[in-house]
Specification:
Helices cover about 45% and strands about 15% of the residues. Bound molecules: magnesium ion (MG).
Length: about 170
């Protein structure tokens, strides 16, 4: 039971943004002492229905990268899509990452050369992005999904609430 409790705790983001990734400000990075951002791609940086980052996202990235190392880590197996997006933004990328596995996140952090606690995993999904980031000991930021991710995300939050409620009940026994 305690391992399940730990697992549920790992689904809890350190920060929930009720907005898209472009609302991550330099002030916010300073507040949490963050110097690196690992960004999920689909529905975090670019809507799954789009092939390119929006002008708003490009502008945000141009500014934020002046104070933080940026890396894209996507579970998407379509190399052409992730490569195209990463190249247009001029940032390193990893595709087919297999989150919630920590392996590729660790690889991205190593390239950044930063301590784990100074890097945030930013994504729209609890069971991949947040779980992987928390498992590695990164700061985790959950953002609002850009496109069709909304349904899946609603389902995830619903499941998470049920799991938390169950854990609270069991912990009283
Ligand atoms: Mg995503």
């Amino acid at each position: 039971m305690s391992s399940l409790l730990n697992w549920v705790a790992l689904l809890q983001p350190d920060l929930v943004l009720a907005d898209s990734v472009s609302k991550i400000t330099p002030d916010l990075l300073a507040q949490y002492r963050l110097k690196g951002l690992i960004l999920d791609v689909d529905d975090t940086l670019v809507s799954t229905t789009a092939t390119d980052a929006s002008p708003e996202t490009i502008l945000w990235l141009t500014e934020i990268r002046q104070i933080a190392s940026i890396s894209l880590v996507s579970n998407n197996f379509k190399r052409s899509r992730i490569e195209r997006i990463a190249n247009s933004l001029d940032v390193p990328y990893i595709f087919g990452a297999g989150k919630p596995s920590r392996r590729k996140l660790r690889q991205a952090v190593t390239v950044m050369g930063l301590p784990l606690e100074e890097v945030a995993m930013v994504g729209d999904r609890l069971f991949t992005d947040v779980l992987a980031g928390n498992r590695l000991g990164l700061f985790t930021i959950l953002v609002e999904p850009l496109g069709r991710g909304t349904f899946l995300r609603g389902l995830e939050l619903f499941l998470f609430k049920i799991l938390k409620r169950l854990m609270t009940l069991f912990s009283r026994i």
